[in-house]
Give the backbone structure.
Amino acid sequence: MPHRHSAAALLLAASLAALPAWGATVNVSVGGASLVFTPSVVHIHPGDTVVWTNAGGYHSIAADDGSFSIAPANPPWSLSHTFNTVGTFNYQCTVHGSYYGMTGSVIVDAPASQPGTFRFGQASFSVNEAAGTATITVQRVNGDDGPVTVQYAATAGTATAGQDFTPASGTLSWGDKDSGDKSFTVAIANDTTAEPSETVLLALSSPTGGATLDAARKTSTLTILDNDSGGGGGGPLNAPSNLQATAPSTSEIDLTWTDNSGNETGFQVERRTVGSTYAVVATVGPNTTSAPVPGLDAGSLSVFRVRATGSSGTFSAYSPEVAAATLADPGPCVAGATTLCVNNGRFQVTVDWSTGASTGQGSVVPLPSAPDSGLFYFFAPSNIEMLIKVLNACVPSFNRYWVFFAATTNVEFGVVVTDTRNGKTRAYYNPFNRPAPPVQDVDAFATCP
């Protein structure tokens, strides 16, 4: 709200301090009490930066291959160089190197292999008894180096094997640089007996290729929801959960959710944009866990919610909100008053905001000295609301473009970042009256180079 914006500059500084930088920084002291570099040998990884600072004396730095240097001078001075390739880079002080052995080395080691960690896509799953099968997702996170496998199993909890479900087991496989979700199915039996919800135990085991298991989500539970209570009766009408949105085209968003009721007559999907009110955009039948939403403008950010419908016009509570965006048409980023172009103009950033009483688009404050970053204000140029940056992390072990931003506001806003080379988007949403948390999305765009 406006009365909270006077401290925006201080809050922005605090939020920015919490954001991680791309790559590490190693400091080397030059000279001082003796004619040495301290430390004289450093080990780093691609993307890391070395900063040399003159601690005293008339010194210089010159790389043997000419890739970095600074002329002889007394302090204060410093030299910064980012190393992006593997190798050994020797250097010396041109004043004292030959006679006094004032030399140093930067050794850029290949990044350690990161085969990743396996986990279930959700802490718990549920399925209506009439669905026939339950699809269980497994994720590979925090690395995608090398081919890996993991074994899965679905065994009896309170559900009876062979009567309520069919036990399942097998192996899921990923190739090198494959971080996509995999899945397996559990067959569900539909009987005519009214009974309480029953559970199937899910487990991951025996990872290969150096991958590990997520301790918190190497196990999960599948709940089978009974559907024999008579259509709208026999138990509460529960809200859907795990609402997710993806944008497979420039005109359609696909929604998926978990059905937590066994007695719904259908589902109602509602959509709005930032600052607007919800409108019904789709209705689907019972025992459904997905719906397409066509007819949306390319590049627009949408906020969705879903609720279950029951007999006699009853409704469940709404699912949690989720923000999404359609794919924008590929094309060049054209910088403007409300359009930020970063990372050599490849990525386009727009922001919509609302206080409830007023709605608008974020105004851009470009940063010519930092072409990967930009600022936005909502109300006045003196009141900066957001810093956002898109970083090129297209180096081994990352192979992504990263999106970081810090917003010092509690108004409703939505951010859409578009890779204009291929039209892929990433959307971020903050509801009204919630202090916006910093975003550190290191999986944003797997679109290198």
Observations:
- The mean pLDDT is 85.
- The chain has four domains: 25-108, 117-225, 241-325, 329-445.
- The longest strand covers residues 384-393.
- The radius of gyration is 27 Å.
